[in-house]
Amino acid sequence: MALTNFERTLRAVRVERRRRPLALLVAIAVLAAWGAWAALARVGVHVTSVSGRLEVVEPVQVLRAEVAGRLVAVHARLGQVVAAGDVLYEIDAAEQELAVADAAARREAVLAERDVLLAAIDAAAAAGEGVSQAAALLGVRTGA
Hints:
Elements: H1 5-40, E1 71-74, E2 89-91, H2 94-126, H3 131-142
Antiparallel strand pairs: 1-2
Helix pairs in contact: 2-3
């Protein structure tokens, strides 16, 4: 008796249905065994304890910046050995650069005023008015 295509398909489906529960039971058994092992197994833990005492070899060195400012770079790491003269941190120098530029501008203004006063003294001396008048002029110009 020859089987039709439909009968062959039905037979294949029946065989497949029998295999699925078996695979599911094997998976459940493996998971149950793993869970039991994880819950009940004893794992050896080795504990070591040491007692000791720390002593300071050298006193703590406090670092202070010569100027206040905002840090822009850190060149030292924690625990790094450093020597005298090593750059550890960089501070933003914008504020100090502005102060230097301001001082240079004030210096130029004072030098320009000095040149004007020296020219006035030279002009007064050349006109024959004498040194006392030139000195008086210098006192008036500076507010003294």
